[in-house]
Design brief:
This protein is 40% helix and 19% strand. By secondary structure, it is α/β, with parallel strands linked by helices. It has a seven-stranded mixed sheet with strand order 3-2-4-5-7-6-12. Strands 9-11-10-13-14-15 form a six-stranded mixed sheet, with helices on both faces. A two-stranded antiparallel sheet has the order 1-8.
Length: 395
């Protein structure tokens, strides 16, 4: 199928997310429809406003009194077999926490657009990945997008991945607050016929059946819980393979690629690597290209899929690199950056590279090229890794 090449538009990241969520919901109109529980919070409110205005053929958008209830609606809808999604951010996600965990352990293929915003207090509305990363161990697949196009396409990919019977896990599609959510970029938006072609009817095998009543969420014995966790773990291990299948299908339908778990630039001969995610990776790439022109053998790895962590690919790309700097827009108290800790764990026993943590843009401060160069210079001069380096503290 050839994509509609006339649909390039200047839209915000929130618009891109709302558009893809809505078309995905409408694509299930010939099955059990769509249900979305919504509650606004800056900076994702425009997403739920878009969804609330969409004229769904079969389904409902349900405004509720809190984020906790928004996810509760999605859980009930998904257990009934409907395609379900929502959006949230920051302390809204924290308020939703109990039900976010329930959705993961129930293996429900709910998709959530998550606009990364600093958790408070102190109250702060700018970009920081700590809000979604607090759920990194509770059964949700996590993607960190770097542009409006990436948000639009990954949202559609998320439904295909989540609803695959080999996976059946919820997915967070994350974007940096304001830098993506409120910034307008040229974005190729899908049309309904394309999404209808890409997404099959949502078919949830564990959905409730009035003809065969059962209890959901009752008490289980320790070995039953352990067995459930093992099944979830096995599904997580299948994600990379299944993701690649659905990326291939995405390109056939829409006529363009969608980024996978990891992207890499100039890693083949690099003795020094930077690792980043989200929009920080976009800035880092420009700095890496500049340093390459100056003769440095430096490369960049962008980690898009954080859960499951793409260990095999990261190990392969790090190759023979001697020094690795991880740029984190998040902070784990007393440890440093979350992506850095995952990278160190991933490379343990597979590489002798020095791995250094750099904290950039924590709390939403700007990550400008000068900060990336500062990290690269510091990394070049190191003979051993040390405590996390906080960049930009003199601004």
């Amino acid at each position: 199928m050839v994509a509609n090449l006339n649909e390039m538009r200047l839209v915000t990241g929130n618009h891109a997310a709302g558009h893809s969520l809505s078309l995905a919901g409408e694509a299930n109109r010939f099955a059990r429809g769509v249900v979305s529980g919504i509650y606004p919070i800056t900076p994702q409110t425009e997403i739920v406003e878009y969804v609330a205005r969409f004229p769904f053929t079969r389904g409902r958008v349900i405004p509720v009194e809190s984020e906790h209830s928004a996810m509760g609606v999605c859980i009930g809808a998904s257990l009934s077999g409907a395609r379900s999604f929502t959006a949230s951010s920051s302390n809204g996600l924290a308020y939703m926490a109990e039900n976010v965990i329930v959705a993961g352990y129930y293996r429900l293929p709910i998709v959530m657009a998550a606009v990364n915003r600093t958790l408070g207090p102190p109250w702060n509305i700018w970009a920081d990945q700590g809000d979604t990363l607090m759920f990194r161990d509770f059964g949700w697949i996590q993607f960190y997008c770097d542009s409006n196009q990436d948000v639009a396409d990954t949202t559609l990919l998320a439904f295909r991945l989540a609803e695959d019977r080999r996976i059946l896990l919820p997915v967070m599609v994350c974007m940096d607050a304001f830098i993506v959510s409120h910034t307008s970029m040229e974005t190729r938006l899908a049309d309904q016929s394309e999404v209808d072609c890409y997404l099959p009817a949502c078919d949830i095998p564990q959905r409730l059946d009035a003809g065969h009543p059962c209890t959901v969420g009752g008490m289980s014995w320790p070995k039953e819980t352990q067995s459930q966790r093992l099944e979830l773990d096995e599904a997580m291990h299948r994600v990379p393979m299944v993701l690649e299948e659905h990326r291939t299908h995405f390109q056939r339908v829409f006529g363009r690629p969608v980024a996978g778990a990891v992207e890499a630039w100039h890693t083949e001969d690099a003795d020094t690597l930077l690792i980043a995610s989200g929009t920080v990776a976009v800035t880092a790439l420009e700095v890496v290209r500049e340093l390459r022109r100056a003769g440095q053998r430096i490369g960049l790895i962008r980690i898009k899929m954080f859960r499951p962590f793409p260990m095999d690919e990261v190990r392969r790309l790090c190759g023979s690199a001697q020094k690795i700097g991880v740029l984190d827009r998040n902070y784990a108290a007393g440890i440093g950056g979350v992506f850095c800790q995952e990278t160190r764990s991933c490379l343990q026993g597979h590489s002798n590279a020095l791995v250094q943590s750099y904290l950039a843009g924590v709390g939403g401060s700007d990550v400008v090229p000068a900060l990336i160069r500062e990290a690269a210079d510091d990394l070049q001069g190191r003979s051993a890794a040390g405590d996390a380096v906080w960049l930009g503290m003199d601004v």
